[in-house]
Amino acid sequence: MMKKVGILGGTFDPPHIGHFIIADEVKHALSLDEIWFIPTNEPPHKRQAMMSNQHRIGMLEEVTKEFSYFKVNTIEMERIGKSYTIETVKQLKKRFPMIQFYFIIGADMVEYLPHWQEINELIKLIQFVGVKRSGYTLSTDYPILEVNIPLIETSSTEIKQRIIEERPIHFFVPEQVYSYIKEHRLYGFK
Question: pTM of the predicted model, to two decimals?
Answer without folding.
Answer: 0.90
